[in-house]
Amino acid sequence: MTTAPYRATERTVPTRSAERASYNRELVHAILDDAYLCHLGFIRDGAPVVLPTLYARVGTRLYVHGSTGSRPLRGAKDPGLAVCLTVTHLDGIVLARSAFHHSINYRSVVVHGTAREVTDPAERAEALDTIVDHIVPGRADDSRRANAKELAATAVVRLDLDEVSAKVRTGGPNDDPEDLALPYWSGVLPVTRSYGTPIPADDLTPSTPLPGYLSAH
Amino acid sequence: MTTAPYRATERTVPTRSAERASYNRELVHAILDDAYLCHLGFIRDGAPVVLPTLYARVGTRLYVHGSTGSRPLRGAKDPGLAVCLTVTHLDGIVLARSAFHHSINYRSVVVHGTAREVTDPAERAEALDTIVDHIVPGRADDSRRANAKELAATAVVRLDLDEVSAKVRTGGPNDDPEDLALPYWSGVLPVTRSYGTPIPADDLTPSTPLPGYLSAH
Fold this sequence. Notes:
Two copies of one chain form a homodimer. The model of chain A has no long low-confidence stretch (mean pLDDT about 95). Chain A has a single domain (about 20-175), classed as Pnp Oxidase, Chain A (Roll). By secondary structure, chain A is of the alpha+beta class. The two termini of chain A are about 30 Å apart. Helices cover about 20% and strands about 40% of the residues of chain A. Chain A has helices spanning about 25-35, 70-75, 120-135, 150, 210-215; strands at about 20, 35-45, 45-60, 60-65, 80-95, 105-115, 155-160, 165-170, 185-195, 200. In chain A, strand 3 (about 45-60) and strand 4 (about 60-65) form a beta hairpin. The interface between A and B is large, with 96 and 96 residues. Chains A, B: This is Pyridoxamine 5'-phosphate oxidase family protein.
């Protein structure tokens, strides 16, 4: 398994804050693995469309799934669909003395490429398990896997990690020196994602225990 | 101020789960107001691009800002840039007995339209204040506002709410009747956004009190 950075291309080198960009493979993968909701952009009838969708990573491949009736997934049939898949973690609100230097701390990954429908049954099955386990580790084995009818209704789409970059901002505000004595509080308000107490389904058999992978939350 | 729903168009009527779509003005506005990070999609050199950015709403106008050097904001100069702006709240992970019926609870808004650079000084100033106050209410008045040089370096872009829709999923899993007796736990794992303890800047004058709008978090 290579550990070389991803290649920088014309469209993965940002015009702004280029010092925040990274092509480091481990960083890209860590940011992707720490989320499961992405925003997928594609072109429909000449106009951009951005839709939220779930995803998971297997090595250098990302998988997205959905109904065979969905427009972007239909569009991913051969020869594929040009997409931009973006994942963003909001980590903090950066309050500077000056309005201008307000910012956010974030970790984002932007993937450019061609999404292609996966037809191989084994790859499809692995991708679907991985999407479930990526969101709730251990859940795929603790659920009824898709039957033939459900599999036939599910499209799996693959996007290879090749033209991909990360961008990260961390740390405190970068106020100008002449603003440091201003009386405004400055610093960072941390933002995190939290999980609440699991809510059983109304029709759950009452004796069903809460699985360990949920009590850990 | 009208309370009529937004108009449904060919591209705002989803092909899937259309029953989750809404054009209700109050719902659309509430979802937009409950977030401040969106994913903005546009077309560059014939390919889709999706970038995270901050935004705020004023009536039926959305504002996005950034450096005058950023590519999408440069592209919003007259006659404007075709964009799709999407906001998604992840509210819960829906665990069904069947892998197929796993889902997420979410609230999303998708806006299609043309982003146009704002040149009017008063509208620009209001938009910049609103973006700051939308993220941290009360902060615009408690910071040094942008000076002429900073204003000259800041592009403000406006996207009118016209072709816009919301999509919402709430509630528990929708398992098939024949799966209800399966032994797998089913229900919803709630997901929320949380704020941590504010972290003062290293160079903050120690006597600076934490403002009330931050201690509320």
